[in-house]
Design goal:
36% of the residues lie in helices and 16% in strands. It has 23 helices and 23 strands. α22 packs antiparallel against α23 (645-653). The two termini are 36 Å apart.
Length: 657
Amino acid sequence: MHSIMFLSASLCINVFVHFFDTFSAIINSSSLPQTIHVAIVCAGYNASRDVVTLVKSVLFHRRNPLHFHFITDSIAQQILASLFHTWMVPAVRVDFYDADELKSEVSWIPNKHYSGIYGLMKLVLTKTLPSDLQKVIVLDTDITFATDIAELWAVFHKFKGQQVLGLVENQSDWYLGNLWKNHRPWPALGRGFNTGVILLLLDRLRKLRWEQMWRLTAERELMSMLSTSLADQDIFNAVIKQNPFLVHQLPCFWNVQLSDHTRSEKCYKDVSDLKVIHWNSPKKLRVKNKHVEFFRNLYLTFLEYDGNLLRRELFGCPSKTDHNSENLQKTLLELDEDDPCYEFRRERFTVHRTHLYFLHYEYEPSADQTDVTLVAQLSMDRLQMLEAICKHWEGPISLALYLSDAEAQQFLRYAQGSEVLMSRSNVGYHIVYKEGQFYPVNLLRNVAMRQVNTPYMFLSDIDFLPMYGLYEYLRKSVVQLDMANTKKALVVPAFETLRYRLSYPKSKAELLSQLDMGTLFTFRYHVWTKGHAPTNFAKWRTATTPYRVQWEADFEPYVMVRRDCPEYDRRFVGFGWNKVAHIMELDAQEYEFVVLPNAYMIHMPHAPSFDITKFRSNKQYRVCLKTLKEEFQQNMSRRYGFAALKYMTGLKRTRMP
């Protein structure tokens, strides 16, 4: 893994010992491992990020099949469903339950805790989870596992009598009521219990009429307490105070609570004894503890751990292969590994783990149905362009970022430290995790396009700064050119500068002046004229109304289109023909190319990308690209028949820069 920079020597030893123990346990086991059920309440964008780190820590140590039960709002469900679908981890099943349908069950309870209404939903799990599910481990999102979750699952066997709840004692003085003057907590047994980790015997709880039990308790206590301070935890403790026989106290290493004023250090003699770490302070990683550096490093290890490594099969535990995995394996087996272009072909079918909406996102649809989203993709070396683009484009933006797990965290820190980016909530950041040797440019574009929720999208690239006011100009053009009822691709003329510091032209007149002075040039005029020649820059200079242009071979303009336009062809990766093929597809589907007379965008200079360097230096790369182009053209012929002949002619004339 490229990104485990925080793994200490002792943790490395533990990892080795863990795998040795895992292998030994499987050799000695005569039966298939039992599926472990885990329930997690998760709502919103930030909590979805936290869940990923928790899940990584569980997957890293596990040797059993897992079934995750997520109680989510619509946001978290969209994010996590996409993530697990693209993660493709063997022996993992995921189910979702709509938290919005459960709100009425707990909305009557006033709650001061920052978790809001979702912090009360663990109370209704007996009703929410399948009626045939007998037991489940319930976890908060701010948990990190340092051991195999099967060890915790095994504790169910230690429950006796009427014990139905497995909990660790609260490690702060909260329920003792001595933290400050007039502090009046909810009733609890002694120090009370923390609900960050719960073992629930669901079948027994249902027989005990758990729903009625907690409701009556909550109603009674709220008459004097008025609201909960610690959400579900207050109500769980009030029930246990009245019915102490319900609880099986877990050893405190199963929930080492790193909140302020805790006794967590008394939980363990050595950090190697730790099982579960709970970051239950709002300060999270900044909490005070004499071993916090070790805890932080353990957390950061999983935060930045390459999730692709967790796709490994379980030893001795054949997992059910889903249809998607089966079809993928079948497709890959059909590829010829001796083909010189095998790696190119394989990339087309690679499933990249994808985390949609990595940061908080808000968008209010416009009433007039003219809204436009800027679509682009980037890698770590282009982060510096984000602030500038946000200053030039005030409308919604959909970005796909190609990053490793460690880079995703660097991006998060960069974004959270930027006033410009944090002031914008209408930018969707979608992380596509790195895998393989190519930059999957068209997959990234497709990911960003699929998350567009405006009627129109402006298909740009990250190195371009749109002119000031382009967003509003495009919205007006939607109406003027009747985009809703016609198939048009509105061309935004592209220019470039070789200067890193440019006085960005505020008008077309100013741009033409800089063009005449040699400060600006038409885009790629010196290396690839054909890419933008059909735009007809000579006509554009004096144009005052939109004008139509015809498709020509190798045309690759930047366009605004309706959201329902075709996706990009994934066979083209890295450098070469990735946009050309898309524009050809638009032409085949009879889109009109219309150049906007008062729109422009400027390409900013940057170092050559790794892919263009490979294209220029690697003959096999160029040979494979030519092969892929020919195959694409054959596909076009099959799909569009006689009308596609012109693309074949154009293909034969094509030469790349």
